[in-house]
Amino acid sequence: MHANQLVLGIEGGGTKTEWVLLSSEGNAVKHGALPAANLRLISDNALEKMFGVLPMEATHVGAYLAGCVNDADRARLFALVQKAWPNAQISVGSDRDSGFATCFGNDDGICVIAGTGSAVTGRKNGRIEKAGGWGQLLGDKGGGYNLAVQALRFVLSNYDIDHRVDELGAQILRTLALNRLEDLVAWAADADKMSVAKLAPVVFEAAKHGQHEMLEAVQFGAHILAEFTRAVALRLDLSRPKVRLLGGLFGHHPEYADLFKDYLSDLLPGADVGVCARSGALGAAWLAGKGGTQNAECKMEGDAIDVAELAAALTEQRNPRSEKLDQMTTPELVDLFVAEENYVVEALEATRESIISAVDLVGAALKNGGRLFYVGAGTSGRLGVLDASEIPPTFSASTELVQGIIAGGARALHSAVEGAEDQPEAGAFTVVERGLTSRDVLCGLAASGRTPFVLGALQRAREIGAKTILLTCNPARRRSEMPWDVEIDLPTGPELVTGSTRLKAGTATKIVLNILSTCAMIRLGKVRGNLMIDVNVSNEKLRDRAVRLVRLGRGCSYDEARALLTATNWNVRSALERK
Q1: CB 266: neighbour CB atoms within 10 A?
Q2: For 283-304, what is each residue's pLDDT tens digit?
Q3: Are 276 and 143 a contacting pair, CB within 8 Å?
Q4: What's the rounded Cα separation, in Å, for the pair 148 and 144?
Q5: Residues 38 and 86 in one domain
Q6: Domain holding 371: CATH number?
Q7: Fewest Cβ atoms closer than 10 Å to its Cβ: which of 33, 179, 371, 504?
Q8: Sequence-distant (≥ 6) Cβ neighbours of residue 349 within 8 angstroms
Q9: Is 11 one of the catalytic residues?
Q10: Residue 229 has what pLDDT?
Q11: Model pLDDT for residues 199-249, shown as the tens digit of each residue
Q12: Is 340 a member of any domain?
């Protein structure tokens, strides 16, 4: 590689898109992950948005995506990459190409990929042979999607026979946050390949606990991939090939790699088998740099953590009032937790002026046709989604008006999603995907004030011209060079359980969100006096509430109020205003 050369490698698969920006020395300057990018399943517009949050300073760009299999695909991908990086040297292809380059560079061998899909690729003296990789409808045996589909079909077949939800079915429902097996039908109608493949860990867990059918499915998957590998080796006349295993199934489930090795040792005794733990984005960068990074270290280490900054965060410090928490009686514990909530009130009072500014900012934006977006990770993200989800039924507002964005998507609402909050580019991408405009307000939620996903979203919102609010529980945080439009730093102090921001920090954050969204609805005229006149009457409890609201608002009897509501199709506002 030449000095000052910056090589961007992008590998898009069925589960996620990994990228890395390499320096001329072959070290990672930046790296991260974005949503899945199968060329056959993603629109040009979506790809343009994704490319738009990646480093523009790259001099060489290699984009290698699943589904890029023929000349027309490569021409389409090349045009999109060239549009994003008009002055860069560009190479494009399939994730099979980048996967092989990750494992072997210029060397010969066989790469076995098992992630959402599966594929086997071998090379000898420039000759390429392949097996598998036909997509979820025709092939991908041994991949995550294929294993998950087998589990779903098995569970539903059992249910049809004895009308009983077995343990595997119960685990699938828990994973998908569904209540009934019948709900799988609605889920499957909208589920994409990636969503189905995310059930693969359930299959491996069931196999590990001796569930016979799932153990057979896992064994068959490993065996068929070994068969494919032997077939490729025979066609290439490789009697003792190097075989490298790549992809999430091998990386996250070592037992799968062990099964594959056992089967291949019988089918191809001379093979040298190993797991490649490197990111496929490195192979994409290697191809983009024309092999110039082959001997470089290509380190993809995590971003260095500022230990001093983290230690200074109040939410990470130890609370002296709870140092003997494990020795307290139940009454002492309850009294302590109740008393600790006093600090929430003090924190809200201390930030009163900032909260007022935020309310005015949001109210003005919504009155002028804008929207309110909450962006957060973990507890903060869940609180944002919760507040946003309560606005439509309470005020009959559009689901577009107040929106919650959580790092890791819907799965993060009930499960931790590894590394979801660590990527500023992912935060920026979600903002672009949601169509944020200069009329909108984006409120970033981060107890520590330092969550990369949130800061990336805020930065992109600022570039778009939207108003920005940062809500934290860490007054000691490091300030950005350019402040956000409003910054609220709630001094809730150390938690009773050190670092557990679902406690006081979570309570204080939820109260501020209550204030922001409710005051905005008041400014939009959705509250008269203290009555919610636009409530969505969708069940018996709300019918009764609606009748009481109309009775209070008009000063009439309960029966008269009910008759008015019946005549106005249960529209509280219309019933109140009817002559």
Answers
A1: 10
A2: 999 999 875 444 344 444 444 4
A3: no
A4: 6
A5: yes
A6: 3.40.50.10490
A7: 179
A8: none
A9: no
A10: 96
A11: 999 999 999 998 999 999 999 999 999 999 999 999 999 989 999 999 989
A12: yes
Token pair 């209070």: residue? 552
The active-site residue, picked from 421, 425, 487, 495, is 421
Tokens of 112: 């076995």
**Average pLDDT over every residue of 319-336:** 93
For residue 96, how many other CB atoms are within 10 A of its CB? 24
Q: Is the pLDDT assigned to residue 332 strictly greater than 50?
A: yes
421 is annotated as an active-site residue: yes
Phi-psi region of 499 (alpha: psi -120 to 50; beta: other; left: phi over 0): left
Q: Which of 129, 213, 316, 390 is catalytic?
A: 390
pLDDT at 409 > cutoff 70? yes
The token duo for 319 is 């609370």
User: 54-68, 107-121, 306-320, 532-546: lowest mean pLDDT where?
Assistant: 306-320
In a shared domain, residues 124 and 40:
no
- Burial zone of 331 (CB within 10 Å; 0-12 exposed, 13-18 middle, 19+ buried): exposed
- With beta carbons less than 8 A apart as the criterion, state whether 494 and 318 touch: yes
Compute the distance between CA of residue 342 and CA of residue 276 in angstroms, rounded to an integer: 53
For 26, half-sphere exposure in the C-beta direction (CA atoms, 13 angstrom radius) is 15
Q: Count the domains in the chain.
A: 4
Length of the chain: 579
pLDDT in tens, 43-73: 999 999 999 999 999 999 999 998 898 999 9
Query: In which domain, by residue range, is 239 found?
Result: 106-270
| Cα–Cα distance for residue pair 245/577, rounded to 1 Å | 69
Cβ–Cβ under 8 Å, residues 374 and 443: yes
User: In which residue are the tokens 């490195």 written?
Assistant: 282
The residue type of 260 is F
The whole-number pLDDT of residue 312 equals 60
Q: 116: closest CA among 92, 99, 129?
A: 99
Residues 88 and 173 in one domain: no
pLDDT for 91 beyond 60: yes
Return the CA Rg of the chain: 28
